[in-house]
Design goal:
This protein is mostly helical. It contains two helices and no strands.
Length: about 50
């Protein structure tokens, strides 16, 4: 039987509330990165024009 990847053992150990908390944190991080790109794009449009 081939060895399992290290992350599979860690994933199985998480309880549902811990997993939910981890997913929420990851989602909020991704949201903040997307929001930063969007705000940066809008600032660029305002200060540098649409060229």
């Amino acid at each position: 039987m081939p060895p399992r990847p290290a992350w599979s053992v860690e994933e199985r150990r998480l309880t549902p509330p811990d997993k939910k908390k981890q997913n929420l944190r990851t989602g909020l991080i991704l949201l903040s990165v997307a929001l930063a790109f969007f705000v940066g794009f809008m600032v660029k449009m305002v200060f540098l024009g649409r060229s």
